[in-house]
């Protein structure tokens, strides 16, 4: 039983001592005190199916014993900065991570977050190419520091500070984009940006394979191969942001970019990599990695023993528990059930995504695709009352984001869809 401060007491402290920009989804904010596998528990012991996984940060399930043991054991032995002395935790995890990546992608730089990973990737691309121009996608999200905020393609996540050198390409969005699912048509816009907006040479192209914050938008098929071709011709590097779509979440593949059959020059990751522990990484080729030898490069905690011990445990759990196969099986089942729900309710404009990275877009008019902004909040809130937590995103805030821990079961999927069905039937 929980005997700590109440939700109201925490809320009062939060209002007084924490950022005024914090936000939450619910009328009455949820106070979670414990987690186990795909479940969270509030202060009264009520169980919630966590279909958002802390924004896709938890892949093995909350408090997975193997990951917790790895963290606790390493903490008891040693925790320190990464840089000065030899330690096996970072080396073992780097080796294991490199083995999951194709081609020559085998040099790992660890960071503490996704933002840091993308900042480093962008800087390396600029150093390697000697160019400044970055091309990213409208509706993409890459972080909250100067470079990554620049690369982010949504005004709602951008502050009015200097963010130079980024061109935002047309989003290959099969649902809202003008070319539908014709990936190669959208790719022409990237070639146009290179031809008309730059010297003809660029530093990099960065994108997610499935946009997470942007509302689970799976890039139109054929898009990345065409764009990667244009970028390579312009002397640039291709960066795959796998912060959300990586680590087996798509079910069909371990990395999101593999769904489009491309091999990037740099891959960035965070969130699931540590099952909730602050950890990020940049993986690239030995040749590109060389650029960081030009000066001193230092990150006090990036790759520290505790976080990398957790990372190694995560990879082992994904393998041991066949979480990729589970993401595919349960994700496909869940998507099929959501598609049935779409036939039943006009308000569901689109169901999309793969594996356990699914989106449900709500619209008040299917023809005009008018975002159902108020309705989604109602459904979100009611689902919480019934014991299901899902996320929300998209530029208009009208897309459900379903990114549960990868140990999600068919029973959980049924509970989620039945709850949504019940709430929509009452609207
Ligand atoms: N890239 C993507 C695709 C993300 O979804 C996020 C976080 N939502 C980031 C980068 C930034 O990661 P972090 O919040 O750990 O800095």
Automatic annotation (TrEMBL):
Cofactor or coenzyme needed: pyridoxal 5'-phosphate
GO molecular function: alanine-glyoxylate transaminase activity; pyridoxal phosphate binding
Keyword Lipid metabolism included in the entry's annotation: no
Biological processes per GO annotation: photorespiration
InterPro entries per record: Aminotrans_3, Aminotrans_3_PPA_site, PyrdxlP-dep_Trfase, PyrdxlP-dep_Trfase_major, PyrdxlP-dep_Trfase_small
Superkingdom of origin: Eukaryota
Keyword vocabulary terms for this entry: Photorespiration, Pyridoxal phosphate
CDD domains: OAT_like (cd00610)
Keyword tRNA processing in annotation: no
Reactions catalysed: glyoxylate + L-alanine = glycine + pyruvate
Matches recorded under SUPFAM superfamilies: PLP-dependent transferases (SSF53383)
Catalytic class of the enzyme: transferase
E.C. no: 2.6.1.44
Record-stated family: Belongs to the class-III pyridoxal-phosphate-dependent aminotransferase family.
Protein name listed in UniProt: alanine--glyoxylate transaminase
Upper classification of the organism: Eukaryota, Viridiplantae, Streptophyta, Embryophyta, Tracheophyta
């Amino acid at each position: 039983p929980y005997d700590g401060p109440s939700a109201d007491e925490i809320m009062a402290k939060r209002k007084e001592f924490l950022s005024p920009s914090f936000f939450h989804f619910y009328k009455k904010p949820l106070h979670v005190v414990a987690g186990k596998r795909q479940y969270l528990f509030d202060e009264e012991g009520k169980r919630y199916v966590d279909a958002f996984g802390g924004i896709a940060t938890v892949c093995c399930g909350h408090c997975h014993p193997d990951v917790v043991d790895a963290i606790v054991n390493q903490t008891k032995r040693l925790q320190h900065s990464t840089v000065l002395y030899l330690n096996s935790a970072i080396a073992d995890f780097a080796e294991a991570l490199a083995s999951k990546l194709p081609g020559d992608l085998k040099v790992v730089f660890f960071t503490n977050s996704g933002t840091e990973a993308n900042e480093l990737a962008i800087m390396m691309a600029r150093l390697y190419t000697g160019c400044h121009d970055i091309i990213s996608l409208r509706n993409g999200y890459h972080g909250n520091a100067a470079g990554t905020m620049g690369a982010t393609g949504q005004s709602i996540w951008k502050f009015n500070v200097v963010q130079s050198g980024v061109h935002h390409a047309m989003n290959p969005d099969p649902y809202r984009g003008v070319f539908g699912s014709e990936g190669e048509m959208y790719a022409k816009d990237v070639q146009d940006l290179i031809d008309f907006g730059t010297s003809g040479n660029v530093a990099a192209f960065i994108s997610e394979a499935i946009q997470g914050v942007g509302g689970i938008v799976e890039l139109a098929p054929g898009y990345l191969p065409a764009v990667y071709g244009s970028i390579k011709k312009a002397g640039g590097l291709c960066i795959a942001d796998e912060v959300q779509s990586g680590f087996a979440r798509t079910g069909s593949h371990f990395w999101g970019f593999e769904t489009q059959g491309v091999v990037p020059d740099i891959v960035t990751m965070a969130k699931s990599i540590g099952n909730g522990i602050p950890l990020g990484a940049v993986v690239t080729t030995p040749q590109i990695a060389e650029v960081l030898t030009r000066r001193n490069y230092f990150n006090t905690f990036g790759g520290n023993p505790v976080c990398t011990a957790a990372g190694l445990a995560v990879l082992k759990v994904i393998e041991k528990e066949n979480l990729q196969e589970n993401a595919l099986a349960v994700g496909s089942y869940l998507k099929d059930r959501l598609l049935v729900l779409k036939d039943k309710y006009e308000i569901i404009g689109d169901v999309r995504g793969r594996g356990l990275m699914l989106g449900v877009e709500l619209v008040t008019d299917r023809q005009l695709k008018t975002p159902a902004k108020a309705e989604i909040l109602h459904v979100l809130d009611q689902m919480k009352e019934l014991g299901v937590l899902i996320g929300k995103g998209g530029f208009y805030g009208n897309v459900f984001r379903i990114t549960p821990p990868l140990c999600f079961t068919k029973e959980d999927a049924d509970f989620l869809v039945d709850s949504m069905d019940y709430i929509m039937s009452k609207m």
